[in-house]
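Reopening this ticket.

The earlier resolution said the output was attached, but the attachment link was broken on my side. Pasting everything inline this time so it's all in one place.
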Amino acid sequence: MGCSRANVRYPLMLTILGFAMIATFLVLIMMKKMSPIAALVLIPALFCVFVGKGAHLGDYVIEGVTSLAPTAAMLMFAIVYFGVMIDVGLFDPIVRGILKFAKADPMRIVVGTAVLAAIVSLDGDGSTTFMITVSAMYPLYKRLKMSLVVLTGVAAMANGVMNTLPWGGPTARAATALKLDASDIFVPMIPALLVGLLFVFVLSYALGLRERKRLGVLTLDEVLEPQEAETVLVGAGGSDDGKVSMTKATGGAGSGTDAEDTDDDFQGLDPNRDTLRPRLYWFNALLTVSLLTAMIMEWLPIPVLFLLGAALALTVNFPRIPDQRARLAAHADNVLNVSGMVFAAAVFTGVLQGTGMVDSMAKWMVDVIPEGMGPHMALVTGLLSLPLTYFMSNDGFYFGVLPVLAEAGAAHGVSPLEMARASLVGQPLHMSSPLVPAVYVLVGMAKVEFGDHTRFVVKWAAATCLVILGAGILFGII
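Inline output:
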């Protein structure tokens, strides 16, 4: 009897410690008491000792690092690749197009951020989306002194909705776990996902209006240096139609004379930078399209594709070795920050998985569902997808938890397709999870503290998830 009680208490202890570990991590980084890297390493190490498995910490960490090493390699070479593409001017036309639309209006800039992130998300890779979006929009936010957490929050939510594409990952995982066809899951979900995306755009409009009220609206001439303004306006059509003449609010965005707003922050639009390669524009565009096509078609593993792509891009655009070294050095800061975060996150995920905390937490959440909720398991799954995909990896949720939920739903007549669709609801929040490597690309390139991003985005991302869930129920999809 005593042994039986101990067996019951141990999973409960793991569940409590698992939630306590996650809560401790979130509180410390949101209060800025620890850096994310330190918190990702030290907190799980401490809780591993509390669980009584400190002797196995090394095994858990190595297992976590091994599982995330391909992701770290992909991010390292993806940052180099897209950094080079930005250097050589591949995305300058996109920036000029957004400038033409935005007209230095904070509201239009925020909406443009959401639209750009949604479009680029079609490639199915969050890291790529964030690199392109931040590279294009960061200079505008910086020069106008707009809130950078608005940039990261809007980009993450737009990408989260689009992450449900069949080649994005979650839909394929749900289909595999429940032995369904991915198109049968995704296609009926399109109306609900479009409502979610529309909500993100409306939210971006509201946040943009708030930024406009705080900062006022500038003309492009006030935002850019004279030479840059002339270049951008010519690129945007060469007329005065792109100008907005309104008075700045007191304490507005300023004219870019502060030390932090040097031209280095605005290199994406510098028409005279030494790294531009206009003669190679179509080669670089074709290379990028080929790379993204190969990634979507899964011709080679993504880390291998970006490794080959980065090597080819460097060799063709910068044949001289000193120039290649200079480009690598220019992007070394981003590479180090992101790869460091990924390997630190490997400690966190390794301990969660290795100690059995994740399994215990998932089983506890399934067990506490009241019996009377059985016929509404799709709704329950949709609601559970918010916290579970935030605190767990997609693999852990879709392969570990969803089959259990689907089995419980099947006993009450809920079809696996409904369960699979409901499981996708939490993706807008998932994309800001501390366990998602791409989010470190986002906050790192935007120079935003992870805690600040978390505080800002969680409520809005959760609202987006609930809108999708509500739309799914309203349309009879879930």
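Reporter confirms the inline version is readable. Residues 1-8, 224-269 have pLDDT under 50 and may be disordered. The two ends are 44 Å apart (CA to CA).
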